Amino acid sequence: MRNIFGYLLGFLVFVVGIPALMWWVSGRQFPWAPAQTWAIVAIILIVSGLALSIWSIVHMKKVGEGNPFDAYNHEVAPRTKHLMTDGPYKYTRNPMLAGIYIYDIGVLLWLQGWWPLLVFAVEVILLTLQVRSEEKRLEADFGDDYRAYRQSVPRYFLK
């Protein structure tokens, strides 16, 4: 049950809630679409970001035997039992968030406004604080293995 709660909460916050807030602050009417070129690029980013996040969650559940949702040292769902270093985790230490950022950049391109960009900036700041908290926990849980992994794989994107 806790796994379902964690996934549902993540979906509601990151896939629905933050983009809905971006839309609301943009002042755009619903439905609204940008010029065709922007719409195509935005859709590609949205789909790619969601795909990366989903791949990461499935991989973590299957290989790590746990759930990614650990918010500010509060366990929302069972933590992973194994350090994730393969699959999408060999390219970025936070592929779920990298996917969400790609998704949100697609939403930003769709909305084309400054207020949604401000929402995205606040999201990045808050999630970076969360990631720093997670990194401390991962170092405590996995020690030298995590430190070596952290040295060789970027937090989000290219190192």
Q: What's the short story on this structure?
A:
By secondary structure, the chain is mainly α.
Number of helices: 4
Overall helicity: 55-70%
Beta-strand share of residues: under 5%
- Work out the count of structural domains: 1
SS content category: mainly alpha
Uncertain residue segments: none
Mean of residue pLDDT values: 85
Strand order of the largest sheet: 1-2
Shape label:
elongated
CATH topology: Four Helix Bundle (Hemerythrin (Met), subunit A)
Radius of gyration, CA atoms, in whole angstroms? 16 Å
The number of strands is 2
CATH architecture: Up-down Bundle
* H-E string: HHEEHH
Q: Please summarize the sheet with the most strands.
A: 2 strands, antiparallel
Q: Give the termini separation.
A: 37 Å
CATH class value: Mainly Alpha
